[in-house]
Write the structure tokens for this entry.
Amino acid sequence: MPNIYLKAGEFIMSSGPARVITVLGSCVSVTMFSERLGIGAICHALLPKRAGAEDDFKFVDSSIVQMVKAFEKLEIRRHEIEVKLFGGADMFPDKTGNMLFSPVGEQNVRIALSTLQRENLRLRASDVGGRSGRKLYYYIHANRVLVRKLKK
């Protein structure tokens, strides 16, 4: 089975056996899967909302919309799509535990959840938030995600 390394701002969709590996801090990954056709997809989005007309996989909201469009092109209906959400850690606390920067991870999760709701998609599983990064192993053909929390 091939290993595919998913970088920030990328998206993969496949029906064949593959293990997709990605590392998340404040970024989020959304997985979508059609059991009927055995097709899965995953994205690695960095920022909550697209700026202007940009429509790419760097942004959480446009990533979700584009993934749905890719499934619809294959005649997969929204109620058939199983969705999972991962990441969104707040990675930059100071020594007192306060956040030094705006909580991008929290914003990414919030936008993901609102976009999923707006697109009429049901979230089946999630592992989000906290202060630790995650390493994901997504077995795309089986729709199975293993999550390893990273030490600071």
